[in-house]
Amino acid sequence: MRLILAEDSTLLREGLVRLLTEEGHEVLAAVGNAELLLKAVAEDPPDVVVADVRMPPTHTDEGLRAALEIRERWPRVGVLVLSQYVEKRYTTELLTGETEGVGYLLKDRVVQVDEFLDALERVAAGHAAFDPEVVRQLLGRTTHSDLLARLTVRERDVLAEMAQGHTNAAIARRLHISQSAVEKHTNAIFDKLELTGGEGYSRRVLAVLRYLGS
């Protein structure tokens, strides 16, 4: 795939370039701030952007705001956000929009190469890839804990897997239950959370994340 990287740490940026190149991907640009990221995407939109959250000049949320702009201006470009933190305000905005081709990983996952590459492939394919810790923190900030309290333990397990972007088949394998059981739990989750379910994987994740960000 064709990629653009935005990371202000030279060591990590160059390490990612080398890793992705060795995996057979084409790195179109590797930049150190959000302004250069947007410029690079405008010049030659890639398949996926991998962007840090905190970059110069303020080292707060420049990368995440750039990710939001990319999603608005170039909706076909996948975005995989990398951070040591969950910046809740803009993360919620990112994840409650269209979640096709969106991911958010904590940087600890980068050292787990297979998980990082798997997330990248999922985002490039138009799916979602969310770090379990990101999901946990977003779950923790919701004001609808009364609705979550309606869920059974198994339904909570399925919800957590759904919010990470896993398909029904993958959830069944990960939780060691049948796919029909996953579908049953999924329907129950949407009923109990008073969500309007949609057809297809990405719509389901979108509905869950809209609830988490409310």
TrEMBL record:
<keyword id="KW-0805">Transcription regulation</keyword>
<keyword id="KW-0238">DNA-binding</keyword>
<dbReference type="Pfam" id="PF00196">
    <property type="entry name" value="GerE"/>
</dbReference>
<dbReference type="InterPro" id="IPR000792">
    <property type="entry name" value="Tscrpt_reg_LuxR_C"/>
</dbReference>
<dbReference type="InterPro" id="IPR058245">
    <property type="entry name" value="NreC/VraR/RcsB-like_REC"/>
</dbReference>
<feature type="domain" description="Response regulatory">
    <location>
        <begin position="2"/>
        <end position="122"/>
    </location>
</feature>
<keyword id="KW-0597">Phosphoprotein</keyword>
<dbReference type="InterPro" id="IPR016032">
    <property type="entry name" value="Sig_transdc_resp-reg_C-effctor"/>
</dbReference>
<protein>
    <submittedName>
        <fullName>Response regulator</fullName>
    </submittedName>
</protein>
<dbReference type="InterPro" id="IPR039420">
    <property type="entry name" value="WalR-like"/>
</dbReference>
<feature type="modified residue" description="4-aspartylphosphate">
    <location>
        <position position="52"/>
    </location>
</feature>
<dbReference type="InterPro" id="IPR011006">
    <property type="entry name" value="CheY-like_superfamily"/>
</dbReference>
<dbReference type="Pfam" id="PF00072">
    <property type="entry name" value="Response_reg"/>
</dbReference>
<feature type="domain" description="HTH luxR-type">
    <location>
        <begin position="144"/>
        <end position="214"/>
    </location>
</feature>
<keyword id="KW-0804">Transcription</keyword>
<dbReference type="InterPro" id="IPR001789">
    <property type="entry name" value="Sig_transdc_resp-reg_receiver"/>
</dbReference>
